[in-house]
Write a structure and sequence with these properties.
The protein is α/β, with parallel strands linked by helices. It has 9 helices and 5 strands. It binds zinc ion.
Length: about 290
Amino acid sequence: MNDDLDYLRAAITEAQAAQAAGEVPVGAVVVRAGRVIGRGQNRVLRDSDPTAHAEVVALREAGQHLGNYRIEDCTLYVTLEPCAMCAGAILHARVARLVYAALDPKAGACGSVLAVMNHPQLNHHVEVYPGLLSEECGALLTGFFRQRRQAQAAARIQQRRETSMTTKKKWSAGVTSDSTHPEEGLFNKSASEIAKALASKKVSPKGPASGMRMLNFYINRAGKNLSKERHSELEKAKDELSDIIASQKKKPAKTASKSVKKKATKKKAAPKKSTKSAPKKSSSKTSSKK
Ligand SMILES: [Zn+2]
């Protein structure tokens, strides 16, 4: 049993090497008469080979060493329960003993999902010893998958940042002729807010027509990325902005100032009513409380 632990640790070393290369950490060794005659680590990604599981890689090396596709009188040590493919390879190789560490509840073919070993209709019998150093080997795998998830999440965030940066660059490159830029998020506001801002001298110092060009440019560039609601709101903003442009062309400065005065007087009248009614309500409330 002590020998089993030593050889399984040799398989763990192979698994760690696979992890260092960015592969799922699984390792295996083949031992015959106290000698390691085959080592293997998972290398499916590096070799673009779906069959390059640690067990198969180790069995190939052992076969080369023996000059025989039958790898008899050998023990295969592996850090994870073999899959159906590897279990089949172990049977074909006539491996005598199989020692594996962690169970594989998703793809294990030595009892977890399938039971390929020692099937009653198959001739070859394999001695199977599961569970040795299973916690250590299981932790190796769970740690690897946790790290990979974190790395993938970080990559997604980075990608989002980069795409938002490139869209900003495109925008600024497209409107250099207008010399000014609307505040960030303006095109997410209401139609009237957009129209007012684009008509303002701050955003469109050469007049609201340049604001209209900016709005058209934005709608064309955003294109399919705009929701239907946003698109109709921007179209509404275009209508309001063209109204502003038309009113500035038609109305002389004097009539415009009169209409402002009328509005101002109306506004003044309104608050008087409210100020009268407000104290009455509050007084009646306080009296009822007493
Ligand atoms: Zn496998």
